[in-house]
């Protein structure tokens, strides 16, 4: 598929920045489209070849590799066209642990464990509990009549045991698998694909509308074309993440630059099939399939974490393969660091604090728009920034500013998550992002999201993080 190029677009995270290098098809993908069709079946006309991302030249600055080697020196959306710095570190920086299955953590409300707790249930819940244990409750319309059913010896114990068994069976099985971490530049997961369980490494990113795989990898793994979909997809059969059966794995074949050892990008279409717990510091991921009963809470311990609801926001003037690009958005209050500023930040708006729309990228560093910096009066003598020099793929040098800012992330029921971060200002890619006119924009990247254990549930449209990330 080769969609028409539109106006210049911003790079969205590392995955979208890599797609700057996506080129039109120069090979025939017909070999990937071996899906049998009934005789006489009319095939929908489709363009052959890998996808081209409609990112314009203005995003080339997002392709920059930094001069400094610290993780904070990476501009958000740093290009993989200039991936040499990462490649040089790749061999020694990949970390992980052996996969293992673990028991589901806290999250779901426990069933009643005593006769007193059972009798304290609401009428509707008590009636359902007794029916689950096989008791006939058809003629019972109040709790007293239900209590009569519990009087025979052993019935209460049978009901409690039945409820416990149902609760255990309803818990999604949680798997622990290694997380590949390349400093603060990106994270990746290893999948086993196809009948031969070939190991394929995919970068995790939320800024592209679909999962991708390199065209040559798709051919090597014997991918089969999927008919009637746009953009064109291939199926690689069953996928396994550790011992977790992920079901059929589909991806859009592309030609693009990726980090060393990676063969594509896992985006929200794949991530949304599961609940996740990312522990970037310890290079571990816990993952569970989304349960059939979506009312079942996430199967991880979130008692010490703070809930941050997010929504999916369409990025204006951006599309990929004719599909809108939807990004994870949460409210953020941003302000200068320091005791006085922090007090204003977490209270009412003051002269040095600001409401922003923040977008959560798993393959980026944190940034804010120029209008946000101007509203906070950054860059003056009283609050100077730190210069950051970056080299674009064409060899040009550009300088950006980093500022230490305090952030209050989210508007969950228990309040925001507090964090201090070095925030990049006026990156060209961020200048091109268009969401709500006049609303300051920020990016929360892996440098913030990876500081502590984070639970991520696309089905619940929430993440959970430590209340204070420092």
UniProtKB/TrEMBL annotation:
Residues 37-56 are annotated as: Disordered. InterPro entries: Peptidase_aspartic_dom_sf (IPR021109). It comes from the Eukaryota. This is Uncharacterized protein. It comes from Alexandrium monilatum.
């Amino acid at each position: 598929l080769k969609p028409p190029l539109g106006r210049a677009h911003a790079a969205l995270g590392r995955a979208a920045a890599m797609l700057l290098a996506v080129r039109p098809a120069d090979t025939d993908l017909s070999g990937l489209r071996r899906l049998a069709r009934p005789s006489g079946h009319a095939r929908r006309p489709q363009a052959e070849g890998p996808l081209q991302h409609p990112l314009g030249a203005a995003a080339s600055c997002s392709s920059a590799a930094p001069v400094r080697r610290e993780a904070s020196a990476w501009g958000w959306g740093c290009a993989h066209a200039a991936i040499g710095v990462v490649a040089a570190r790749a061999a020694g920086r990949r970390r992980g642990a052996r996969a293992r299955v673990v028991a589901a953590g806290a999250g779901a409300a426990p069933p009643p464990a005593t006769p007193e707790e059972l009798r304290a249930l609401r009428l509707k819940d008590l009636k359902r509990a007794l029916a689950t244990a096989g008791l006939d409750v058809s003629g019972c319309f109040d709790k007293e009549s239900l209590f009569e059913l519990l009087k025979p010896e052993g019935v209460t114990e049978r009901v409690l045991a039945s409820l416990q068994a149902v609760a255990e069976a309803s818990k999604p099985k949680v798997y622990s698998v290694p997380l590949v971490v390349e400093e603060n530049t990106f994270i990746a997961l290893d999948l086993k694909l196809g009948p031969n369980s070939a190991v394929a490494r995919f970068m995790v990113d939320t800024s592209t509308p679909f999962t991708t795989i390199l065209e040559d990898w798709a051919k090597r793994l014997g991918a089969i074309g999927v008919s009637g979909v746009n953009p064109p997809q291939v199926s690689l059969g069953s996928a396994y993440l550790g011992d977790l059966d992920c079901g059929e794995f589909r991806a859009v074949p592309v030609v693009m630059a990726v980090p060393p050892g990676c063969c594509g990008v896992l985006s929200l279409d794949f991530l949304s099939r599961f609940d996740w717990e990312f522990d970037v510091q310890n290079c571990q991921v816990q993952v569970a399939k989304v349960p059939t009963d979506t009312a079942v809470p996430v199967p991880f311990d979130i008692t010490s974490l703070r809930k941050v609801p997010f929504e999916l926001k369409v990025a204006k003037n951006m599309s990929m393969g004719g599909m809108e690009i939807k990004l994870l958005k949460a409210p953020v209050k941003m302000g200068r660091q320091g005791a006085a500023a922090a007090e204003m930040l977490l209270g009412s708006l003051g002269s040095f604090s600001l409401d922003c729309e923040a977008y959560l990228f798993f393959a980026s560093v944190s940034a804010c728009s120029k209008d946000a910096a101007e509203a906070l009066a950054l860059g003056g003598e009283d609050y100077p920034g730190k210069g950051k020099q970056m080299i674009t793929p064409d060899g040009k040098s550009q300088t950006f500013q980093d500022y230490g800012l305090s952030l209050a992330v989210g508007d969950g029921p228990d309040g925001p998550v507090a964090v201090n971060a070095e925030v990049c200002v006026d990156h060209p890619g961020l200048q091109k992002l268009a969401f709500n006119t006049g609303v300051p924009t920020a990016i929360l990247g892996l440098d913030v999201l990876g500081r502590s254990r984070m639970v991520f549930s696309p089905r619940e449209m929430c993440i959970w993080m430590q209340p204070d990330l420092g």
